[in-house]
Amino acid sequence: MPLGVRRTAFATLGTTFIALVVTGIAYAGNGGFLPGEAHSPNAHRIDDAFIFVAIFTGIIFLIVEGALLAFIIKYRRGKRARTAEGPQIHGSTRLEVLWTVLPAVILAVIGGFIFWELPGIADAPKAAAADETTIQIEGHQFYWLFRYPNGAVSINRMVAPADEVVNEQVIGLDWDVNHSWWVTDLGGKYDAIPGRVNKTWFKAPVGDYVARCAELCGIQHALMDGTVHVVPRAQYDSFIKQRLANASGVALGKEEWGACQSCHRLDHAYIGPALGGNPLLGDVAGLTTLLRNGQGQMPAVGKNWTDAQIQALVAYTKQFAKSGGA
Ligand code: HEC
Ligand SMILES: [Cu+2]
Q: Of ligand 1's atoms, which has the minimum distance to the CA of residue 286?
């Protein structure tokens, strides 16, 4: 192949590659490159740290890969004999000092920046005690259970007040496995580990934010997601009040049934058997035994559920106890 053609081929290949990569990144936008779209001060700081590190790694990537490509092209064998020896070079003090000192400086700068950002990620801003809300988050196979300051409970959907600090206490249960609470838009991952209370916080505007379990926790881990539903303070207050007043009501029962659905369907066997028409769905005493103790492959899904919580479930599921199913 004549030299000119080969050069054109290289140039075309290179340009195409760069165009594809750049389009990909541009098209993906924030969702593709950033951890998420930050909606809480701590999440913003995580993004800042991410971008700061990405700038250095990006530049280093371009320099290293660029040099690699340049050297491959510039020092290719071409028409030289296979046996031709290259020039023998011994040491270059300046270069060696440079490539030792520069990485050390870069690491120190990155480390310094991260340590500067960390307190703003870990520590909640001080607020008047009256404005503080603390919500406890329990990881279960395979659902999230939220406990509010007044004792109300919700499942897989946390309701939280907007524009104020919400403290989160993430815990695990000693009969369960490890999970990890991760609301990408509101901050980092916090593990739900039996015997530990991991604390984090957020302060977010009104909106719905997706929560994921970020720790492979068993067969239905992929279905272990939830929503953080951030609403104006008054709406939050009335939600937890109503929830407490209807502690055995259908609204909670429906959420609890969502937890069952990570393993059960009404009309066909899934991880567990089909439940349509199963008389246990209308039987508080029977379900209490089953949920508190588990059975065979079914974990003790409701080991720490109160009687009211089980009544709430039955208030919702009794409709399925009669309706026939496979
Ligand atoms: C982690 C998966 C999983 C979850 C979550 C789960 N189950 Fe099960 N369930 C099973 C399995 C597996 C079985 C079969 C148990 C066995 O081997 O005996 C089962 C069996 C049952 C049975 C049949 C028991 C019988 O003897 O007829 C009922 C009723 C039941 N589950 C209700 C529920 C309810 C209600 C929930 C939600 C509160 C729930 N399950 C959540 C996996 C699950
Ligand atoms: Cu999990």
A: 29
Instruction: Name which residue sits closest to atom 2 of ligand 1, judged by CA.
Output: 263
CATH of domain 133-231: 2.60.40.420
Query: Which ligand 1 atom minimizes the distance to the CA of 291?
Result: 38
Q: Whose CA is nearest to atom 20 of ligand 1?
A: 272
Task: Tell me, using a 6 A CB cutoff, whether residue 262 lines ligand 1.
Answer: yes
From ligand 2's centre to the CA of 226, what distance in Å?
11
- For the Cβ of 217 lying below 6 angstroms from any atom of ligand 1, the answer is no
Q: Which two tokens stand for residue 228?
A: 């953080």
d(CA 63, CA 113): 23
Tokens 């492959």 sit at which residue?
297
299 CA to middle of ligand 1, Å? 8
pLDDT tens by residue, 245-288: 999 999 999 999 999 999 999 999 999 999 999 999 999 999 99
Q: What is the pTM of this model?
A: 0.84
CA of 153 to the centre of ligand 2 (A): 19
DSSP assignment of 119-135 equals HHHHSPPP--GGG-EEE
Domain with CATH 1.10.760.10 in the chain: 251-322
Q: Where in the chain is the domain with CATH 2.60.40.420?
A: 133-231
Query: Options 2.40.50.140, 1.10.1740.10, 1.10.760.10, 3.40.190.10; which CATH number does 251-322 get?
Result: 1.10.760.10
**Torsion sign, CA atoms 24, 28, 29, 30:** negative
Cα 268 to Cα 220, 222, 247, 277: the distances in Å are 17, 20, 30, 11
- Atom of ligand 1 at shortest distance to CA of 143? 5
Instruction: State the Cα–Cα distance between residues 193 and 180, nearest whole angstrom.
Output: 8
Question: How close is the Cα of 279 to the center of ligand 2, in Å?
Answer: 29
Q: What is the pLDDT of residues 138-178, one digit of tens each?
A: 999 999 999 999 999 999 999 999 999 999 999 999 999 99
Say if ligand 1 is within 6 A of residue 36 CB: no
